[in-house]
Amino acid sequence: MNREEARAKAIELVSKMTVSEMASQLRYDSPAIERLGIPEYNWWNEGLHGFARSGTATGFPQAIGLGATFDEELLDEIGDVISTEARAKYNEYSKHEDRDIYKGLTIWSPNVNLFRDPRWGRGQETYGEDPYHIARLAIRFIHGLQEGKGPKADNAHMKTAACAKHFAVHSGPEAQRHHFDAKVSLKDLYETYLPQFEACVKEAGVESVMGAYNRTNGEPCCAHSYLMGKVLLAEWGFEGHFVSDCWAIRDFHENHKVTSDPVESAALALEQGCDLNCGCTYLSLDQGLKEGKIDEELVRRSAIKLFTARYLLGLFEENEYDSIPYEKVECAEHLAVAKKACEESIVMLKNDGILPVDRSKVKTIGVIGPNADSRAALEGNYFGTSSEYITPLAGLIHGADGIRILYSEGADLFKNRPDNLARPFNRLSEAAAVCEHSDLVILCLGLDATIEGEEGDTGNQFASGDKIDLDLPESQRKLVETVIKSGTPFVVCMLTGSAMDMRFAEENASAILQCWYPGPRGGDTIADIIYGKLNPSGKLPVTIYKSVEDVPEFTDYSMKGRTYRYIETEPLYPFGFGLGYSKTKVDSAEIAGRDESGVKIKVKASNMGDYAAREVLQVYIKTDSEYETLNARLAAFKSIEIPASADTEVTIEVPLTAFTTVDNEGCRKVHAAAADFFVGFGQPDKRTEELYGVSSIEIKAVPAEG
Length: 706
Fold this sequence. Notes:
Blueprint: H1 3-14, H2 19-24, E1 29-30, E2 41-42, H3 63-67, H4 72-95, H5 131-146, E3 163-167, E4 181-182, H6 186-193, H7 195-202, E5 208-211, E6 215-216, E7 219-220, H8 225-235, E8 241-243, H9 250-254, H10 262-271, H11 285-290, H12 296-312, H13 332-345, E9 347-351, E10 364-368, H14 376-379, H15 392-398, E11 404-408, H16 428-436, E12 440-446, H17 474-486, E13 490-495, H18 503-508, E14 511-514, H19 522-531, H20 563-566, E15 584-594, E16 598-607, E17 613-623, E18 633-642, E19 646-655, E20 661-662, E21 668-669, E22 674-680, H21 686-692, E23 697-703
Parallel strand pairs: 3-5, 4-6, 5-8, 10-11, 10-12, 12-13, 13-14
Antiparallel strand pairs: 1-2, 6-7, 9-14, 15-16, 16-19, 17-18, 17-22, 20-21, 22-23
């Protein structure tokens, strides 16, 4: 069903409603209108990295881990899996008249905010710190959610409705989000904070957009005349519906102080185009209508948009997805996609040759750390329930094949004592003993969603979800000291959703694996890498800084000094970097053609190792525009396969939009005469070259036009 047909049906249905009935449908928990045969519908559902908060579902690595795959096709597959399971569950729930929260087909994902500061607790929900990279992955994820596999038939319904959030200029601090005003220049707005949203709207056709809690340049984001009226509707031609973040409209009068009461807040949001209220402020619509403070036509406008979405989903008629059976939930096919995602997400940052494990030398492995056997460290936030959880400890035991495994938790995640009657750090002696009796230690450190996440998550210093710095909690720092002191070689497995200060690991560990929150069965994949059954292939979607001192003040939304595009110091590990067990390199790159879609580059790459490699070919650009970013920026990427001890030739296309830059007035166009391209498996910066031992191939002075 196309939008025009769905809208016509919505107009007809809404015309039969009283204004009070229309207003009731603008809440996330829309009640039934029995006289018109309209069942209740709850719009609130989540599917960030698996169908979430609705019981059993296939679980994937947290979104930041999906960002580390740099695999567009994989994101499409994941979106399809999530939408299939959403339909399977919706079909079953509907039979049982269960229309509760997290049971609908409007998925409030993906989170396409830019991870501009590693302290932001919700950064784990994003794909990383680069707007182009985020956009390419989000487009394919949305396609999988809304259309599923294969070409969509002309008369097909939408499979599920995706939502791009949080619009816009939103990335912490969590503790201030209900009253914070993010100040941003027009250049940063159009260069950094908006491109991924524009791609979701104009290229992916995302059905909904969710506003942010904060203000941006003075206006609350869920009633922003510039962002919503000028940009989203006028410039981008958005035809879907706009939803507030949860209870964000209440912040208008309670925290932002731009209105005086709920009626004024509801009126302001509705006037600026907020169709759906996640929260309770739109309960005031009836009062506002009676008092003449709210225009009935605005209520009708939003009701039509919302029922257009419901018709697009086929909620009032039989559709092609009604036959998806419950057995699709966590089926073998879906679990295979999750396994592939986990395999492609883990980033090897260092390896002095200790990995893969040499079974002729390593007879006993000590597995130590608070995240070694933690279910929470597999999940991240916004997750579903798995029928099985495999922690790193369990995975290493599964694959031991004669190697003795010793285990010690060693430390609590953040408390100084896991046992109240014991002395502080009372597990360190056990960890020391395990080190002494092991040939190799796998040290599983990091965080979980109780100490980095959304405001209200428990366990962190301020109950805000953000980190105050990039250090591990003291309990884990003490554990690290104990392991280093033992002299036993060790591998760090870092399970986090963000970059940490890992100078201790760079200086002392034999190898480092950035595992993110790898998903319910991630422990087997971590073990497969350690034992050499799998060649790691993930690339960093964020910069790992040396310390918090290299990051600007958290509330400063200027991009100066932030992310790989504007960093002024040398990172510990750069965006786009990731090692494998095989030495790979780009041997040559040359322009192979140009048409209306982009510049085509023919690339020859080789693999000098014994492992077949999945690599991520990356093209960076630096134009001669005066408005160019400080450092070369990502212009194209492609997941490629290179057989062991062989080479391959591939073609990668750089879109012509890569030649554009954004001026100080926010105008994006071609301001350059030419650009230099850099082709490799990472950035063209000195630190990446130092870590890889090879440099990118440079193609100089490519004309911007012609």
